[in-house]
Design a protein that fits this description.
single chain, 100 residues, mainly alpha, 0% strand, rod-shaped
Length: 100
């Protein structure tokens, strides 16, 4: 009976060792995959920080907005003048067509 008990204990120890090795191997693979992903995020974060240094500041954007407002005001003025010119040309054209 001692031999049967020893075989049982050894099989239980063997089973526990196999389960432990499987879990620790899976944990290592998961950790390696996580480390690889985190490394990729670190590289991406470094690139974002580097690019952010060259991005326009709030004051830069305010100046751009101000210049766009000036350009749109000028464009609106030119548009109004072109509409007036178009109306004048229409009147001249109408006069020339209706002349007897």
């Amino acid at each position: 009976m001692d031999l049967e008990l020893l075989k049982f204990v050894l099989s239980v120890i063997n089973l526990v060792a196999v389960v432990w090795l499987a879990l620790s191997g899976r944990n290592r693979v998961t950790k390696d995959a996580l480390d690889a992903k985190l490394s990729g995020f670190g590289d991406r974060l470094t690139a974002i920080e580097r690019d952010q240094r060259h991005a326009p500041t709030h004051d830069d954007l305010k100046r751009i907005h101000s210049r766009l407002d000036e350009a749109l005001t000028g464009l609106s003025s030119v548009n109004g003048k072109l509409e007036g010119t178009n109306k004048t040309l229409d009147l001249i054209h109408e006069h020339l067509l209706n002349r007897d």
